[in-house]
Amino acid sequence: MTDDTLDQPSVHALLADGRTVRIRPVRRDDHDQLQGLYEEMSPENLRLRFFAASRRSAARAADRACAPRHFGYRALLAETEGQVIGLAEYDTGGTEPDARTAEISIAVADGLHHRGVGTLLIEHLVSAARAEGITTFTADALSENHEVLRLFADLGLRTARRFEGPEVRCTIALDDSDTYLTAVEERGRGADIASMEPLLRPRAVAVVGAGRKAGSVGRAVLHQLRTGGYTGQLFAVNPGAHAILGVPCHPSVTALPRTPDLAVLAVPAAAVPATAEECGKAGVRALLVVTAGLDAGQAKALLAACREHGMRLVGPNCLGLSNTDPALHLDATFAAGHPRPGTAGVAVQSGGVGIALLDGMSRLGIGVSSFVSLGDKYDVSGNDMLQWWESDGRTDLALLHLESFGSPRAFSRTARRVTRRMPVLTVDAGRTEAGRRAAASHTAAAATRTMTRGALFTQAGVTATRSVGELLEAAALLHSQPLPAGPRVLIVTNAGGAGVLAADACAEAGLTLPTPTPELIDALLAVLPEGAAVGNPVDATAAVSEGQLMDCVDRIMRYGGIDAVLVALVPTAVAAATGDDLVRALTGAPGRRTKPVAAVRLEQALPVELLPTAQGDGTVPSYSEPQAAARALAHAARRAAWLARPAGTVPDLDGVETERAHAAVEAWLQAHPDGGWLDPRDCAELLDCYGIPQLSWAWADTEDAAVLAAQRLRGADGRVVMKAHWPGLLHKSAEHAVHLDLRGDAQVRAAYRDLETRFAGLLTGVVVQPLADRGTELFAGVVQDEVFGPLVLFGLGGTATEILADHAARLAPLTDHDVHDLITAPRCAPLLFGAGGARPVDLAGLEQLLLRLSRMASDLPQLAEADFNPVLATPGGASVLDARLRLLPRRPHDPYLRRLR
């Protein structure tokens, strides 16, 4: 542990009441404030903190915290608007650089207890201690100090108590467990929701920059607030006007008759920082900045003002926000109309997408519970909105359009929880981005942003669509219909051609079309007109009546062999002549159906509609294209499958030597401070730390050493392989740097001399291996994304891995479900399970290899890339034939630590 490792940037986080606090390391110039923190405590609190009520303890405690730093000591303080309100410390004793136990202490200013100050400080100490290798905290407290004992007990960490007279010795294990993450998440959720109250439930709103001329954005927002029926107090700020749209104007925020909870800033970009600072000093709790065009300096100043004064921020460069709660009627947007009240929460980064979704939700009749245009997303994010919708009591459908993620792992944990309560849908924006490639390895080439985002959405249970239209299609079905139990669909049509189109669409969407049983065929023929053909699709013919179609659909609904019904209808002269309304056969059916039904009407003008039932107790989605209906049903089937599967667990792995791996990485980076690719010997050591099997190999840097290695490694058939190595060599086959099928010493010598001659000045040695058995060549790898964390990739390997691009990906750490999905997702998966009568490969061994790779990536943030190609899978096992690892000097990052961006 070095003095440099104690450096930690300051961050802002939320207290339990939603207020913002700054967490930072103690500086020497904090002495007076820290001493004042203790001196202002009551005698009783001083006694509980120091076991005595001596005022001299305050000076000694401040001296200790501000003294020159030493090994194993860290002090963090909490402050609001420059005032220190809490201090937390840990100390290993300073005698052993590798100490694993530290003693902690905590102090919180009088009058600020029960707001989460101490808990937040301890969480940040826990994160810092783990990064330094500390595994246990200890703390002494008086047995009557119930508050601090409760704080330790409620952390979510394993805590043991030992009573020693009037004192209690607490021992806290710093396990990185899901129990602790859940506790941190729960505390964060409560604080986050409290902080959003002034933003989405403000009792008073001020529009700063409302113009007198029609066409100004501020005036448009003020108009929306007035005409939308906002029930709180509404103010306008414009020094050059007495009133705008009937709302009295005031010259400044400080001149307002009361401090607004929310200020809408529609001032020029240059004025935004100063206006935000004015709002903060006046006590405003939230800002909505619709202004666009802030430069880097203005953006930094805006966020600094929000953090300094504890204001949540939406924007800048956004459309606004709304909350359709009947008790509030808040519409602080400059959209053309007011959103229809309803149950869909909508958050977008693009104002244009926001307008499209607001219009779509209103047109479908679903409506909106709350809407936030995140804009440049300096602060409030999709994660904040998911937590708000989870708790608002009105939202049952969440729609997101996110172009970036501040903390993908935190978003994933939140989404996993929220999507079990309501569908969470997103438009997967930016799919055509080529992807950021840190190097030219197979892994980096395969790991596009599309693949990374797809892994995040799949693992979190988020329904990812490819367009706004597809999102609306899926939302209509998920809002109106029960989820299907599976992917089996039965198609009913009154026109054979429409049925064929629907069948093609279902097959292309990944749905299945089971053949009806003889019993169902007989039941349907009994109610359908003569000439009907009962297969899948069911051709009810143009002669089908409204009543016959209703009976047909109802009998299908009672059939256990299907999960959903798709009814493709076309208008006919027969139905017109008889007065039959075939659509009414779907919307007028008695009782609530337990399986989803969707209609396709090729003549329908709108892409999707929700048709009200005759009883007025629901709706039926109707699509103008069979592809749209099939896509929506496929999304619903995938959501049902995700919900039906229990949450996965990260398996325990034996034989993992994490500390040895950390030591090896640190030693290598000390010798190579800029990072780089490891040589085969260093790669092998790291793989051995995680029990990842490799094919036997030997290193040789002379011709004679290569011959000796070949003699030792030859298999029963006497053949070996020789691979050249030099720093930076990635694609050996492309460089013709591999010799296969070498027999006898003469061929080994000739191969070595060939490599030595062709790669003179580059070659540092060769790897000699026995010729591998026949098997399936696979590919496995990791890319450490700076935003998303480690991404594990798997698929078909060999020299054509990039050309065929048969890869799947999941974010680490992999659960048991993730690794199963990873193996079964690529197109080559049938080869692993014994296609064509072949024996299946060792699937358990392959799963272990991927789980160990995932563990290595999760343990080592310095692992920028891991590239295993090929991995040879046979019925007898799975082993790595060629491994490449790249390290970079990165510090551990705690993605779950509570902090604002």
From TrEMBL:
SUPFAM superfamilies: Acyl-CoA N-acyltransferases (Nat), Glutathione synthetase ATP-binding domain-like, NAD(P)-binding Rossmann-fold domains, Succinyl-CoA synthetase domains. Keywords: Transferase. Residues 21-175 form the N-acetyltransferase domain. Transmembrane segments: none annotated. GO terms for molecular function: acetate-CoA ligase (ADP-forming) activity; acyltransferase activity, transferring groups other than amino-acyl groups; ATP binding. InterPro entries: Acyl_CoA_acyltransferase, ATP_grasp_subdomain_1, CoA-bd, GNAT_dom, Ligase_CoA_dom, NAD(P)-bd_dom_sf, Succ_CoA_lig_flav_dom, Succinyl-CoA_synth-like. Pfam families: Acetyltransf_1, ATP-grasp_5, CoA_binding_2, Ligase_CoA_2, Succ_CoA_lig. PANTHER family: COA BINDING DOMAIN CONTAINING PROTEIN, PEPTIDYL-LYSINE N-ACETYLTRANSFERASE PATZ. This is GNAT family N-acetyltransferase.
